[in-house]
Design goal:
The complex is a heterodimer of chains A (338) and B (330). Chain A has 338 residues and is α/β, with parallel strands linked by helices. Chain A has 12 helices and 14 strands. Chain A has a 7-stranded mixed β-sheet, with helices on both faces. In chain A, strand 13, helix 10 and strand 14 form a beta-alpha-beta unit. The two termini of chain A are 23 Å apart. In chain B, strand 6, helix 9 and strand 7 form a beta-alpha-beta unit. Chain B is 45% helix and 10% strand. Classes of the chains: A alpha/beta (338), B alpha/beta (330). At the A-B interface, helix 3, helix 4 and helix 5 of A face helix 6 and helix 7 of B.
């Protein structure tokens, strides 16, 4: 494929923003399953600060779109208890940074209840939250903490990059019988893309090749998919054919698709907006190093958020996250076209 | 439970309810004493937190509940499990890490869950189950049932913030939940007066939650208070907070045998000799005309049940090694 636009399998002409796609996914699941409800801060009339949930309370009422106090741990615990007793709650954690406030409920409770009970209890709980920097929101509203969650056995982690994926993955998350955390990049709510009118789901654990290529694999998560697609365009001008693989979910992880791409191209760069140290990028790079080693022409590399708290000043903040330019430069260096 | 149902159906003597309660309390005591022996003879891995001395709290509250009502429990949870209807055999099997245990040996003493009896699990984080219990209550309300959730926790959990987050929401939304704070005086090895500023009941009353202090060694007083709280919850009047004054006769866990640095022998003797919930109930039953022989028979039955349970668990198989990777995801 020569176009940087997203590869979509299903034919679709209608275009939605990522925000609209998430809203539609939640609305459809609320309509089809009376056990689904949503709880969070400013989710009802306010529709969240990003207005992603606007209109839902008007259709489903205040019992199913429930404005809560500013009590992240409390609403996650309540969501878990409801999930264990027949409901399918969606807990809205306004910013990914606030995931730190729910860690006991998520890590010690939700992640373990199925295992600790020998499979007798389950927690079909969905948490929606954000990641992503460059909104000039400084250190406590800009982090990408998905690796913290992905580290814990028993939790699933969804990182949608396109409106199509966001809708389909969100519906799968709600229907899943496990705790699932969906991280939406707060910089992508206005991104538009094709979303079919008819119902569909995207299964968890299936990666998507967003652009096919022959010379180098760029494994990119969430908004880094767009960074990778832009970088691929730059590389094409230099005669380097880049393949962009979007894992779409970190847990479960589609190891086969990622490894197959790296073995095919012989070069791989992983790009992820979490911190570099002990992060998702490290895990993905290790996977490629372990399973594609003998087919690689060079060591796998990773490009991640700089290991600093996210600074406020725009000139500093912009240095902390990967860009198409830095990724393209890394890729050129790796294939010897620097 | 059979005797309780017979009482309700047949209108038999009021003492029957308390004979059934006595049976449960005696079973918990015998169970815990056997746990202590198993630990001391190195037949039980890990450790356990004994409920001895607190039996009237779990039994008094669970006697006021239906099988379909929910409870969440604590690290000191064996009494809650048994009072809610768990089998001695499967409890012991779980404590020994055996396959027929309630959690196939994967939970152990601190994580026993028994969903068939509405027990959503014991918890090793002292305030960790407050959200689960409150969520179960919200679920009951959303599903339109009249189920009630009881959240058992020790006074140590008064130090964890999530309790206050969920009590606020339970009060706001009138959720059918009862917060049962078992005050056994010690946060592990520290007297609660050193860790707890102000008043306990006022913590709940600040949210507009009805709060009551209860003599936790008197199973009849506990039952009465629990019955009022459960009725409030079932009729849509919202949560209740019960502060149940009690005492753990043993240490924080089975290995905590040298306790002199945090509490005196005299204090322990005072509770054991004058405020033992089993002795208090048996004295009352005797006053009601129940023959001592009857009480002896009950104790004998409980002991037999416990011995049979231990025998079952010791003979039971361990889980297959392949189970280590099972149940990570549903």
């Amino acid at each position: 494929m020569s176009s940087p636009s997203v590869t979509i399998v299903e034919p679709a002409t209608r275009r939605l923003t990522l925000s609209q796609a998430v809203n539609e996914a939640i609305g459809e699941e609320l309509r089809r399953d009376p056990s689904v409800f949503l709880i969070g801060e400013d989710v009802a009339e306010a529709g969240t600060p990003f207005k992603v949930l606007s209109g839902l309370v008007e259709e489903f009422g205040a019992e199913r779109i429930l404005d809560s106090p500013i009590s992240e741990a409390g609403i996650t615990g309540i969501g878990l208890g409801a999930a264990m007793t027949g409901m399918r709650p969606i807990v809205d954690i306004m910013f990914g940074d606030f995931m730190t406030l729910v860690m006991d409920q998520l890590v010690n409770q939700a992640a373990k209840i199925h295992y600790m009970s020998g499979g007798r209890l389950k927690a079909p709980l969905t948490i929606r939250t954000t990641l992503g920097a460059t909104r000039r929101s400084a250190a406590q509203h800009s982090q990408s903490l998905h690796a913290l969650v992905a580290h814990i056995p028993g939790l699933k982690v969804v990182l949608p990059s396109t409106p199509y994926d966001a809708k389909g993955l969100f519906k799968s998350a709600i229907r899943d019988d496990n705790p699932v955390v969906v991280f939406e990049d707060k910089m992508m709510f206005a991104v538009e893309g094709p979303v079919p009118e008819e119902e569909y789901v995207v299964p968890l654990g299936v990666a998507d090749v967003k652009r096919e290529g022959e010379d180098i694999t760029l494994v990119a998560t969430s908004s880094m998919v767009y960074v990778a697609l832009d970088a691929a365009e730059q590389l094409a001008e230099d005669g380097v054919s880049a393949e962009v693989v979007d894992p779409r979910t970190l847990v479960p992880l589609d190891r086969e698709t990622i490894v197959a791409s790296a073995r095919k191209t012989g070069h791989a760069v992983v790009v992820d907006e979490g911190h570099r140290g002990y992060g998702a990028g490290a895990e993905l790079a290790a996977l490629i190093a372990e399973d594609a080693f003998y087919d690689l022409d060079a060591p796998v590399r990773r490009l991640c958020a700089r290991d600093v708290p996210i600074p406020f000043s725009p000139v500093l903040e912009d240095l902390t996250v990967p860009t198409a330019d830095t990724l393209a430069a890394e890729a050129r260096d790796l294939v010897g076209k620097a | 439970m059979t005797a309780v149902h017979e009482t309700e159906r047949g209108g038999r003597a009021k003492a029957d309810r308390w004979l059934a309660a006595y049976r449960r309390m005696v079973t918990i005591r015998a169970f815990e004493e056997r746990v202590n022996e198993l630990y001391r003879s190195a037949k039980m891995p890990g450790l356990a937190h004994l409920y001895i001395g607190e039996e009237a709290v779990a039994v008094g509250i669970c006697e006021a509940l239906r099988k379909t009502d929910y409870i969440t429990s604590t690290h000191r949870g064996h009494g809650h499990c048994l009072a809610k209807g768990a089998s001695v055999e499967r409890m012991f099997a779980e404590l020994l890490g055996k396959e027929p245990g309630y959690c196939r040996g994967k939970g152990g003493s601190m994580h026993i869950a028994d969903h068939e009896n509405g027990n959503l699990g014991a918890n090793a984080i002292v305030g960790g189950s407050t959200g689960i219990a409150t969520g179960a209550a919200m679920s009951a309300k959303l599903r339109g049932t009249d189920q009630v959730a009881v959240c058992f926790f020790g006074e140590g959990a008064l130090g964890q913030g999530v309790l206050y987050e969920v009590m606020n929401m339970a009060a706001l939304w009138k959720l059918p939940v009862v917060y049962a704070c078992e005050n056994n005086l010690y946060n592990e090895y520290t007297h609660y007066s050193e860790t707890t500023a102000g008043d306990v009941l006022v913590r709940a009353e600040a949210f507009g939650i009805s709060a009551e202090e209860v003599e936790g060694q008197d199973v009849r007083a506990v039952f009465d208070a629990a019955t009022r709280a459960v009725e409030r919850a079932r009729s849509g009047e919202g949560p209740t907070f019960l502060a149940l004054n009690t005492y753990r006769f043993h240490g924080h866990h089975v290995g905590d045998v040298d306790r002199r640095y945090y509490r005196s022998r005299e204090e322990e003797a005072e509770w054991r000799e004058r405020r033992d919930p089993l002795a208090l109930l048996s004295s009352w039953l005797t006053e009601q005309g129940v023959a001592e022989r009857t009480l002896e028979e009950i104790r004998g039955e409980a002991q037999e049940e416990v011995e049979a349970g231990v025998g079952f668990a010791l003979a039971a198989p361990y889980p297959d090694p392949s189970e280590v990777d099972e149940h990570v995801f549903a």
